[in-house]
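Structure tokens please, single chain.
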Amino acid sequence: MLFSLIKSLSSAEKRYFKLFANTYAKPINRHIELFNLIDSQNKYEAQSILNHFKNIKQAINLNADKEYLYKMIMSALQAYYKNFSPKIKIRNLIEQSEIAQHKNLVKSTFRLINRARNLAIKHEEFSLLIELYEIEKKATVSFYGASKMKDFIDNNARSFNKIFDKMKNLYAYYQISDQCSFYLKLTKKEDKEKWRNVCFPVNSNGLLKDESMALTVRAKNIFYLVHALNANLDDNFEQVYQITKKWKDTLEEKIQIISSVSTLDWEMNTMYLSSCIRLQKRNEFEKGIGLIKSNKEIFKKRFELICNLEIYYYGVNKLYKQGSQKIMSLEQGILDMKKDISFSIFANLMLNIVQFYFDGAFYKNASNIINEVLLDKESSKVQDIYIVQLRIFNLIVLYELGEHLMLSSQAITTKYYLMKSKNWSKINSNIVNLFLLISKQNFTKQFNKKLLEVYTIIKQNVFENEDLENKDFMLSILNWLKLKLNK
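Here you go.
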């Protein structure tokens, strides 16, 4: 738990923790030392930590010190986010009002309650408004007696009826949102056909017929999200663009005011940028990406998404020559960030750049990046789809570069890797076997025959399977095979 917590911290959070620890917590030196040791590890290794403290002749009770450090970090984060999280601000005011009430500070109690209430209304924290109602009722009775109870209830009845109406309305939208989330997790085609209209009732549910049915900013956010997702499922990129553009123009700033940047914000922004890519709205795309990049903290958290969108933009629009310099700059940025991201994310980003270079026939560039990943010692430890696809690309790239001797040995290595990692599928095995023919004498005739066989298998697989997970990869291979056959 502690390792995961430390690894999740941003540079700003780490810096704040150390300031907080030295100012308020007064830790023993070994707690900061323990924090730095764990932060430097790629994988948690208890024995390495014990050896370190043994070498510097400092006693440590690892379990107790880890627990203390965990609590210290959580306290620091609570203090850090009180300035960012509306909910934490409101909770702090509620706690202060209860202390003021306990000390019989009448004016302070109601002033703090009013401040908390105004914040809760502004940020649509309705559950906290109900909690505040109970606290204010208790304070009223405590300071003014039970005779004031009826006046308090009468004064608050109308406003609380409105709050309850908004809560009911918001929870109805949350239910629609949950249905959409359920649908997006479905994998089988028949299940998607069965549940599409149930989970995306854009034509049958009155709450989705007009924006005015949503009584809160959060509800309006869900209204736009559902309509954008529905259009996205139909590949109606013009409609996705119109919906997300309207959302950005009318609602995005309000969402950022009532809450910190949420998952919903990113879903909408991603769909907006993706629709700009599809509709070749280059200026809007670059402006949108630029705004995200201008916030260093957000850029770091969403690094993978932003890089993939930029690669996607130049690849989808086939801007290979125009985009090559931009992609090379992006490639260097990913290498610079390598130590701060997981190897799986690194491999995924590099795979997408390889695919861009491959589709543009920049085979030397593709080869350099493939080597950067496959020669990393981490690549032999993981068995995910990114490494599999990079190995397949590697064979084709070596063939295009005329590296037949290297290709023969790599085809054998790739075969063993795919078999060991249980990725020896019909398609993968046929591609590898195609390049195993290179080592044979007079391979040209057999190679051309095998090319057609592999092309037929992949084409059938791509066009019969709509839910193919690695469709972009397969289409790249298919286009290359088609090009070879035409020659």
